[in-house]
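Ex. 9. Protein: Metallophosphoesterase.
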Amino acid sequence: MIYTVSDLHGCLEDWQTLLDTIHFSDQDTMFVLGDCVDLGPDPIGLLHDMMERPNVFPTLGNHELSFVRSVQTLPPEATADNFMDYLTDDARAQLAKWAADGGQRTLMQYLALDEEDREAILDYIGEMTLYEEAEADGVSFVLTHSGITGFDPEQPLDEYSPADFLNANPTPGMEYFSDRTVIVGHTPTYLLRGGKAGHILDDGGIIYIDCGAAHKDIGGRVGCLRLDDFEEFYV
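Predicted structure tokens for Metallophosphoesterase:
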């Protein structure tokens, strides 16, 4: 079976509960559509869990990009107590912006790692793809974090820039392809016309699966879609 989920935002326990709920096995495939880090309780723990699963395939989200850009210049000796000493003014501004967008816990957990583990985390993020393509029960899918900015039906997917996949904001009623269904996260469904917190929004040409896992105070939760039969699972 093929599954997809997005915007887990450090919700490690929810992720593990989801895998138990769907009886995820070595014969299954899971696509995670970005924004695994920030906001939630255990972003680094979530990445560690995903890294151990060869049949889990993550795409890059804007929060992963902000994370890497904010910490990549920190030396191994940087700690939670002294990391600011190693930052230029521009780097401090970048890090402050990321922290304000939910990155504080990710930063502290990252700084608690040893050098080898830090490198492994950054390498894992560096290997994340910008999009994935899948087919299930005769239906073709394009899976990406946010959609595609500046979409041109004649332009091959591998000719778009990374930024085009990270901050797009498709809205209900839009369609990218006539022959492929696009699945996106990034924008919580409660912010979309016809959507509500904690529920996947299937708009035909585009399916929105960011169910607001990091916003439980307003009913958000993890939403997972099985591509083989479009069954929805929630935690």
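Check your answer against this statement. Helices lie at 12-21, 43-51, 62-71, 89-111, 115-126.
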